[in-house]
Amino acid sequence: MIWDDVGFLLSKNRYSENSLISEVFTKNHGKVSGIIFGGTSRKIKNYLQIGNRIYVNYQSKSENRFGFFKVEIEEALSPLYFDNEQKLTCITSAMSLIKLLTAESQKNQNIYGLIENFFQILQSNFWIKKYIFWELELLKALGYDLVLKDLVDKKLIGNQLQYISKSLNDKKIVPNFLVDRNENSEDIKTLLSGLKLIGDYLEKTILSPNNLSHPIGRLQFINSLK
């Protein structure tokens, strides 16, 4: 089986002295794993950065056999943020979620489009808040639509409108911006509350039922904001 495609590098792990096992989310073949022979060489290792868009030639003896990639750089996206720790860890967070939550070899143009949109978000104002909305869109694309406005009650507390979850067992204050869907700037404490709420939903709905651990990349991103 041989095909060519473009995709975003999700992960890379050393396989041998000179090779890597990598995962790429491709435009026409979804998430695909394969070996990059010579992936640690000076010639190509510099552009094998998580999040970069790469051109891949994939070959395997059959659909059930582990294949290998020949790669070329399509667009170096991650190096643009080497001097910005928060955005760099955000890239790791987003790619780790795609890696963890998507199925192998299943084409999904919506997910591919979300990755493209993610890199546009990094260049925009209020990018942290927009990334939080991006996580919600990712969950929705995977069939886990968290419609917060249907899960909260409005309450006036100290002349301020607040949204409280309707759960009988776990009453939580839901940040207003997640319900109102506004894009105005918020203080970092409020944004962190939004990330924590989505993380709690992720744990309860997807990770714990499937014995999965919370993506380290996402935790690192949250810690970079504190």
Can you tell me about this structure?
37% of the residues lie in helices and 25% in strands. It has 226 residues and is of the alpha+beta class. It has a five-stranded mixed barrel. Strands 6-7-8 form a three-stranded antiparallel sheet. Helix 2 packs antiparallel against helix 3. The longest helix has 20 residues, at 188-207.
Biggest sheet strand line-up: 1-2-3-5-4
Average pLDDT, rounded to a whole number, is 91
Helical residues, percent: 25-40%
Biggest sheet architecture = 5 strands, mixed, barrel
What is the helix/strand order? EEEHEEHHHEEEHHH
Number of strand segments: 8
Low-confidence stretches: none
How would you sum up this structure in a few lines?
The protein has 226 residues and is an alpha+beta fold.
Describe the secondary structure blueprint for this structure.
Layout: E1 2-14, E2 20-26, E3 30-36, H1 42-45, E4 53-59, E5 67-75, H2 85-101, H3 109-121, H4 127-141, E6 152-157, E7 160-165, E8 173-174, H5 176-180, H6 188-207, H7 216-225
Parallel strand pairs: 3-5
Antiparallel strand pairs: 1-2, 1-4, 2-3, 4-5, 6-7, 7-8
Helix pairs in contact: 2-3, 2-7, 3-4, 4-6
Question: What are the main properties of this structure?
Answer:
about 230 residues, OB fold (Dihydrolipoamide Acetyltransferase, E2P), 2 domains, about 35% helix, elongated, alpha+beta, three-stranded antiparallel β-sheet, five-stranded mixed beta barrel
